[in-house]
Amino acid sequence: MPRRTESKNCFPARGEQEKVTSVTSPYTDQGEAATKNSDEVALLDVLLRGFGIKNDAQLAAWLEIDKSLLYAVRAGKRRLGLVPRLRVLDHIGFLKARSILESILPENLAKVLVEFNNQLVAELIKKALRENAEDPNVALLEATKIAFGHRTDAELAKFLEVQHNTIATIRSGKSSLGPKPKLKILAHATRAFEPEALLAAVESSSRFLVLLKEHLKHLDPASSNR
After folding, report:
1. Could you report the per-residue pLDDT of 86-131, keeping only the tens digit for each?
2. 24 lies in some domain
3. Range of the domain at 146
4. First vs last Cα of the chain: how many Å apart?
5. Is 156 a domain residue?
6. Mean pLDDT value of segment 134-144
7. What is the 8-class DSSP label of residue 82?
8. What is the mean pLDDT of residues 58-83?
9. How far is 108 from 101, CA to CA, in rounded Å?
């Protein structure tokens, strides 16, 4: 079983980061695509070597994704998604005491919002959670509105940087919040990291490679040559 290790927070604290742009656009240029695909493949190889994983099948299991996705990444047809990348951060202990992916589960994130607020607001959040207990995603929306003082769904959508109709589809039970807005909620509630800086580093394979290599270098001096 590959080891899970502790790591220092490699992202700037709130208020200390530079303005960054998240890398989410599709590959549009052949040269750019080749460079990005090379970074994607290098990322997989660093994960294999750095965490003692024998092959892509084991890596897929470690990342909890289908191995066909890794084959598609190596073929330049796909990028490694955000959730597997967050899972890597969990393996290196990014938030130390907590798991990112466990923290952004709706029911766990709602508990964080209760802890974040004063007693009066916390009681209002608990009431909203009880009233919407049948749907954790709707309960999370209501808890977030109360926790951050948003009066309308339009204000909430702007805060989470999602389309207004996204809130409506969640309320209708047709969808749930994605990892990006949930990371924003977690960041504002815990003040443990800056979401824009984290996403910029995670979504850019070249930046993510630098982060991983720095982490591995602190574990094993020989890994700096990888």
Report:
1. 999 998 888 877 899 999 999 999 999 999 889 999 999 999 999 9
2. no
3. 103-190
4. 21
5. yes
6. 96
7. H
8. 93
9. 10
Does residue 35 carry a pLDDT above 60?
no
Q: What is the pLDDT of residue 36?
A: 64
- Measuring CA to CA, which residue among 119, 113, 138 is closest to residue 189? 113
Taking a C-beta distance cutoff of 8 angstroms, is the pair 60, 70 a contact? yes
Q: What is the CATH number of the domain that holds 219?
A: 1.10.260
The Cα–Cα gap between 125 and 110 comes to 8
The C-alpha angle with vertex 25 and arms to 85 and 138, in degrees rounded to 5, equals: 60
**Largest pairwise CA distance in the chain:** 56
Number of helices (H), then strands (E), belonging to the chain: the values are 13, 0
User: 162-192: per-residue pLDDT in tens?
Assistant: 999 999 999 999 999 999 999 999 999 998 8
- The total number of structural domains in the chain stands at 2
The answer to whether residues 133 and 209 belong to one domain is: no
Domain assignment present for 3: no
Q: How far apart are CA 198 and CA 5, in angstroms?
A: 19
Say whether both 180 and 107 belong to one domain: yes
3-state secondary structure labels for all residues of 59-98: HHHHHCCCHHHHHHHHCCCCCCCHHHHHHHHHHCCCCCCC
